[in-house]
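Hi R.,

Here's the chain you asked about this morning:
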Amino acid sequence: MNADATAVVRELARSPLFASLGPPGLQRLAGECHVRRFAKQAVIFSRGDPGRSMLLTVAGSVALSVASAEGTEVVLAVLRPPAVFGELAIIDGGPRVATATAREPTVLVTIPRPAVMDLLEREPGFALGLLRIVVRLVRSADDRAADLVLLSLQARVEKFLTDAASASQRDDGPRPSGFAVPVDLRMTQTDLARLVGGSRQQVNRIVLLLEERGAIERSGTRIVAVRPERLMALH
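And the predicted structure, written out as tokens:
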């Protein structure tokens, strides 16, 4: 096995979706995969494109977004290693449902549709893992739709930051009151605004308010820590 194939096997093994295949299965799959590199802001695929492969994020980050007829863009998700994406078009053979854009220099492993379909037939663990990913995607879309209807913009920003803190916080035992949870959002306020369905100006005012009240900490324009207790105390 050459060096490139070895690197692909290593990256596939990092993903919980492919880890169940074991070394022989990973080696076979790696032989069908390709490594692709994208510059910052490069379009990986567009909404409506045919879905010929599923993609594994190896380095960098990817934004999935949709745009209205008026040109307003909504970011559905920001993905980082070892996230996979592009699975819906692979499963049903339909077009891409969102546009994928590299937010920074990004490296991806592409898994061709025939290889994915073969795994679905032969590997129950892989099929179950892919089903879980699709279920999370549907739940996330449902939650997002409900939030846009039921929550104010400030509440949506606070919920996003609370979720980010929960994802970053390790279970190291009890925390002192007001503990600041480090977060690494690696996104601009424009990105955040598109994720929560608001304008950059509106979100900027909310972020400044949360900082003044000690609910978040910033380094420059980046949010670097969140105090969930203080976010909850605002209500």
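The radius of gyration is 19 Å.

Let me know if you need anything else.
M.
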